[in-house]
Amino acid sequence: MVEFLLYIQVAICIFPLYCIIRGPSLADRMVALDILGILVTGICIKLIIITDQLFMMDIVYAWIILSFISVLTLAKYLENKKLND
Amino acid sequence: MTEIISTIFIAIGTLVNIISCIGLVRLPDLYNRLQSSTKSVTLGICSMLVGVLIKYGFIGIGIKALIAIPLIFLTATVSAHALAKGAYYFGIRPGEKTTRDDYKGNNK
Questions:
Q1: Could you report the predicted ipTM of this complex, rounded to two decimals?
Q2: CA–CA distance, A74 with B83 (Å, rounded to integer)
Q3: Which residue ranges make up each domain of chain A?
Q4: Inside any domain, residue B79
Q5: Does residue B108 lie in a domain region?
Q6: Is the pLDDT of residue B4 over 80?
Q7: pTM greater than 0.80 (yes/no)
Q8: How far apart are CA A52 and CA A74, in angstroms?
Q9: Which of A63, B21, B33, B71 could form a disulfide with A15 if both were Cys (CB 3.0 to 4.6 A apart)?
Q10: Is A78 within 8 Å of B6 when comparing Cβ atoms?
Q11: Is B85 near chain A, with CB under 8 Å?
Q12: Residue A84 — pLDDT band, cuts 50, 70, 90?
């Protein structure tokens, strides 16, 4: 059952990829990138249940923080500021 | 029994993720899209983490899943807010049907 849900979770990653290709402006692409980062976290959580590899939770933590920092940096770039402002 | 309950929680999380991805594609405006997708994807991931907590109980990994819930709540909402503010200053205006604009007249 959880494997089927994993397939669904991988399949719905197509929507943000489509939005990254389509998006008319730069900010639309960044929104889709943010969503894609959180969806990959969901894939890791389902892999914990399926494979019983408990170290995957550390990957979840690292992925959350990496997505957070990258999106903040991109938002800073949108505002036309330097990184130390 | 705990397997079934945790599977139900993970299924709820997947359903919320599907709905938010449909909203990401279908909604007309950037701010609508941001509201629809970021909040509900965060809710879905939190539901999945509750499923992990129920399956493994209050030992190491369950506690880790419990700590990840406030972490993802804080980081996802803060990054969405920064993205909305940056998009407004970048020059993207809300669509025609949006009536309230709190950032108006605030262009640096």
A1: 0.85
A2: 8
A3: 2-78
A4: yes
A5: no
A6: yes
A7: yes
A8: 35
A9: B21
A10: no
A11: yes
A12: low
Residues of B in contact with A65 (CB under 8 A): 75
Q: A50 with B25: CB under 8 angstroms? A: no
Measured between beta carbons, which residues in chain A are less than 8 angstroms from residue B80?
A: 34
Q: Tell me which residue range forms the domain holding B71.
A: 2-90
For residues B83 and A34, is the Cβ–Cβ distance under 8 A? yes
Q: What is the pLDDT of residues B47-64, one digit of tens each?
A: 999 998 998 888 888 888
Q: What pLDDT shows up at residue A83?
A: 64
Q: Considering Cα of B26, then B75, then A79, then A35, what sign does the dihedral take?
A: negative
Opening angle at CA B10, ends B31 and A53, nearest 5? 110
CA distance B100 to chain A (A): 20
CB contact under 8 A, B17 and A76: no
Phi, psi of B55 (to 5 degrees): -70, -45
Rounded distance, CA B42 to CA B81, Å? 14
Contact A30 B41 (CB under 8 A): no
* Yes or no, beta carbons of A12 and B21 under 8 Å apart: yes
Give the DSSP H/E element, type plus range, for residue A85.
Answer: none
Task: Find out whether B85 and A79 touch, Cβ atoms under 8 Å.
Answer: yes
B33 Cβ contact list (under 8 Å, min separation 6): A28, A31, B23, B24, B27
